[in-house]
């Protein structure tokens, strides 16, 4: 287990190196600290479940660095999904979409879907971009316990199960993202979080 300050000139490159090598990295986002694995490394994503004690039937969301990743990761992108992404990304909205078949089962589980979000945090975006544009990421805490808003809280929860911790100070949000799916153009709220669902519905009506 290593800790590196986010302002260290080597932090982003080191985090990307660990991710590409199949390691786990904790880093700050605009909501809470996340723990990430390379999206194309099933072995690394499997380690996320072990590190968190996460139930195996719960998929792992994916954080992305740009809108182009939407096409790479989603099997289909409806006009409503595109509108929400353009309106609320980067930000605290996770959108569940049909997954591309190349995504490993460790990410999608039995759902055939993947939750995507572009975080509004420069350190997170830089790490994700250098690591290939998409990183399978879930909150950096033991499953069912409180989310980590500092690197110290993440270390207390996950310890040596993580290879590298990037310390970016206290996260600005402190509340996980709102998670939605679109069914027939209608928003279904899967998790209430930092983004008010009323804003999401208003964006689709606009």
Corresponding CATH superfamily = DHBP synthase
Shape: globular
Q: How many beta-strand segments? A: 10
Helical content stands at 25-40%
Number of H/I helices: 8
Report on the structure:
This protein has one domain: DHBP synthase. Strands 1-8-2-3-7-4-6-5-9-10 form a ten-stranded mixed β-sheet, sandwiched between helices. It is an alpha/beta fold. The longest helix is centred in the N-terminal third of the chain and has 11 residues, at 42-52. It is globular and about 45 Å long. It is built from eight helices and ten strands.
Keywords:
206 residues; ten-stranded mixed beta sheet; 33% helix; globular
What is the topology?
Elements: E1 2-5, H1 11-20, E2 25-27, E3 34-38, H2 42-52, E4 62-64, H3 68-73, H4 79-88, E5 93-98, H5 105-108, E6 113-117, H6 122-130, E7 134-139, H7 151-158, E8 164-167, E9 178-183, E10 186-191, H8 197-205
How would you briefly describe this protein structure?
The chain has 206 residues and is of the alpha/beta class. The protein has eight helices and ten strands. It has a single domain (2-77, 96-174), classed as DHBP synthase (Alpha-Beta Complex), CATH 3.90.870.
């Amino acid at each position: 287990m290593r800790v590196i300050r986010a302002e260290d000139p080597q932090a982003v490159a080191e985090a990307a190196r660990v991710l590409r090598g199949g390691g786990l990295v904790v880093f700050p986002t605009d909501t809470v600290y996340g723990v990430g694995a390379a999206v194309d490394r099933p072995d690394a994503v499997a380690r996320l479940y072990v590190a968190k004690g996460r139930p195996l039937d719960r998929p792992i969301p994916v954080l992305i660095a740009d809108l182009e990743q939407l096409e790479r990761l989603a099997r289909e992108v409806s006009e409503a999904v595109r509108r929400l992404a353009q309106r609320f990304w980067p930000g605290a909205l996770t959108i569940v979409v049909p997954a591309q078949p190349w995504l490993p089962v460790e990410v999608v589980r039995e759902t055939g879907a993947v939750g995507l979000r572009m975080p509004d945090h420069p350190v997170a975006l830089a790490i994700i971009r250098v690591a290939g544009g998409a990183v399978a990421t879930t909150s950096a805490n033991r499953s069912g316990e409180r989310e980590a808003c500092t690197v110290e809280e993440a270390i207390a929860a996950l310890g040596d199960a993580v290879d590298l911790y990037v310390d970016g100070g206290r996260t600005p949000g402190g509340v996980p993202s709102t998670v939605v799916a679109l069914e027939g153009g209608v928003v279904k709220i899967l998790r209430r979080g930092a983004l008010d669902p009323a804003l999401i519905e208003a964006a689709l009506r606009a």
